Amino acid sequence: MSSSSVAVVDYGMGNLHSVASALDKVGDGVKVIVTDCPDTILSADRVIFPGVGAIRDCMAELKSRGLDEVIQEVAAQKPMLGICLGMQALLENSEENGGVECLDILPGAVKFFGNDLHDSAGTRLKVPHMGWNNVAHSIEHPLWEGIANNSRFYFVHSYYVDAPDFVAGTADYGVQVHAALACENVFAVQFHPEKSGEAGLRLLRNFLNWDRPTASFFPVSD
Amino acid sequence: MALAKRIIPCLDVDKGRVVKGVNFVGIRDAGDPVEVAKRYNEQGADEITFLDITATHEGRETTVHTVEQIAAEVFIPLTVGGGIREIKDIRTMLNAGADKVGINSAAIHRPDFVKEAADRFGSQCIVIAIDAKRVADEADGRPRWEIFTHGGRKPTGINAVEWAIKMVENGAGEVLLTSMDGDGTKAGYDLALTRAISEAVPVPVIASGGVGNLDHMVAGIKEGLADAVLAASIFHFAEYTVPEAKAYMAARGIEVRL
Is A15 within 8 Å of B95 when comparing Cβ atoms? Predict the structure, then answer.
């Protein structure tokens, strides 16, 4: 692993410092490259697609840098981890900013929590969903290795993923949040592993050790 | 199985040292901020707030360096407040590794600053920090709180609840609410104030100012309806540890991250 590289896609959407420093922490010699250069991204062994902010700006920034096609290409061929807005951008579309078409790499939509969100006991829930919530594993997956089912991860988002397929983990916040998706060489998480303490660092380490998609995508309950 | 209420140790930092004053005077030294932040991270703090109270420009450069050092070692959310006056101050702190910035008096001077900041960086990283004091009741007998600046010395005449609503409409994603009556006194949060603001805004509210024991934290959440509780001196001077606080809250039915 010491000779491998990971590209963190820099497209002007937020703070990549924490992602890069968390990768440095767990990387054990892995070369961490924060870049918006298509060739550099395409030549890296694996790619992290992060992002915070609003989806309209995200898609505009990707397109203006030609990175929308680069992400499509990466998604077709090498391990990729989408984080937060980087996850949402992989879906078909988002309700944010009056409706935005996304990259359509994974099936599903990004929806607003709404202004009248309550838990099952009727308690009002604040939006954004901000803080540490439990993530239930929907499948076994190499990226969950060493992470206990229902471990807490740090979330901050006002829109959530609702996907018909490829759900790898869920969180409960008035609605069922699809907190992680897994499809072949693509893994995507709504939470911030770089801000989720030991569990998050473990997930990043698992990603750096994840060489190829495995056939082990079966439900935990089976 | 639900979102945890957060416990947030706060580091008031002056010229590179953690300090904590009672009502902002009588400052006591509480250590090196990087070491203090690491200790709270190891204890299981859910987030760390770093409040820069340094007055000088040179001191601020020290602050940026300290934030960089904390962010390289602590992988939980980090909020930085104090002296955030322009868009470039926000960019500097986010680049140094902060996840959120607290905006306080700059918003009072220019309310559109919060809107510009949220548009540029996203609401998720803009915290409106409100320092409020109870003042004479409204004509109809309801309690009234107003925003104060300059460490609680200077009144602004602004209604704190209305201000919170306005700043959230402008794009703030969270409210850090400090009762200046309570700050440093260990008499407990201003629960009526906390509840009034938490009910008035859709975003999370962090209660701050006045924690002296763990019952105050429980009350901040159960009665004040806070989404997170912030404390400084009870942790700095080892009266309680973060795990003790969490165990105490969990035993009283509050969802916490253990």
Answer: yes
Residue B102, both tokens: 């607290």
Chain-chain contact of A134 with B76 (C-beta, under 8 angstroms): no
Residues B177-213: tens digit of each pLDDT: 999 987 777 889 999 999 999 999 999 999 999 999 9
CA distance A176 to A199: 21
What are the tens digits of pLDDT across the range B175-186?
A: 999 999 877 778
The span from the CA of B105 to the CA of B94, in Å, is: 19
Q: What's the ipTM? A: 0.93
Best CA proximity match to A55, nearest among A158, A178, A163, A131: A158
Q: Is A14 helix (H, G, I), strand (E, B) or coil?
A: coil
Which domains, from first to last, does chain B contain? 6-251 (3.20.20.70)
Domains, chain A:
5-94+108-208 (3.40.50.880)
B151: left (phi over 0), alpha (psi -120 to 50) or beta: left
Secondary element (H or E) of residue B81: strand B78-81
Report pLDDT digits (tens) over A131-158: 999 999 999 999 999 999 999 999 999 9
Chain B nearest-CA residue for A18? B97
Distance from C-alpha of A43 to C-alpha of A36, rounded to nearest angstrom: 12
How many Cα neighbours within 13 Å face the side chain of A151? 20
Mean pLDDT of A167-178: 98
Q: Rounded distance, CA B204 to CA B197, Å?
A: 10
B256 exposed, middle or buried (CB, 10 Å; 0-12, 13-18, 19+)? buried
Active site residue A183: no
In the annotation, is B215 catalytic? no
Could you give the CA distance from residue B167 to residue B163 in angstroms, rounded to a whole number?
Answer: 6
